[in-house]
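Students often ask what a holo structure prediction actually looks like on paper. The answer is less mysterious than it sounds. You provide the chain, you provide the ligand, and the output is a string of discrete structure tokens encoding the 3D arrangement of the protein together with cytidine-5'-monophosphate.
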Amino acid sequence: MKDDELKRLRPLILALDTTDPAHGMEIAEQVKEYVDIVKVGLELFSAEGPGVVTSVREKGFEVFLDLKLNDIPNTVASACLALCELEPLMLTLHAMGGQEMMRLASRAVGERCKEAGLRRPLMIGVTVLTSLDLPALKKIGVDHPIEEEVLRLARLVRESGLGGLVTSPLETQSVRRAVGEELVLITPGVRLAGMDKDDQKRVATPGEAVRAGADFLVVGRPIHTADEPKKVAEGILKDAGRL
Ligand code: C5P
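The corresponding structure tokens follow.
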């Protein structure tokens, strides 16, 4: 799944977690030297609509479209078909949506992109949200350690034919061992040593995340709130050993 195009991209994904695209793009332009991919998530997509993906791409960035889709298989597959038209680089689904949902969506996307000559997005499964801790998982009926749940979902993502996974940096190493080298691993919760963790609980440095097997790091607030966003982006790539 890791083709050459993907390997050429720098590993830092800038999260545009904002409802103000102008502000988000201003930051993205400042760090363009170090960032090829921008994350468009639910906030920006809901505020601006699908056109925001096109405008980000027109500015020369690839898009990690992180909508974390989760519904019945037919509905998710149909939504994915509509999203394919935007040609994001990556598109996320919740692994909790189950194998049939992931399989159907992945197959439908492959067929549509081939027929229509569209670039096929890399389908990414989200395992356990980093905002869920053990008590929260227990309340929804998950009664075993988080890592076990993440590994179970990671294997399911691989068996469903998706191209990659989102995990916290603390599970990246065991997920990498479990799924092998082919799947793309993406991790949020990345901070340079000494930086504010904000609300992130399971955190690692860029270097630690990459050594554990991460291919891409999603970083938002440390760059958005910095006095010099460019310096922070540069520091992240240096720490990750990619500068
Ligand atoms: O914390 P930061 O602003 O760097 O967030 C980067 C990404 O991490 C967000 O876009 C979101 O997807 C994810 N995130 C998370 N858990 C949180 C907060 C954010 O996984 N508690």
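The mean pLDDT is 95.
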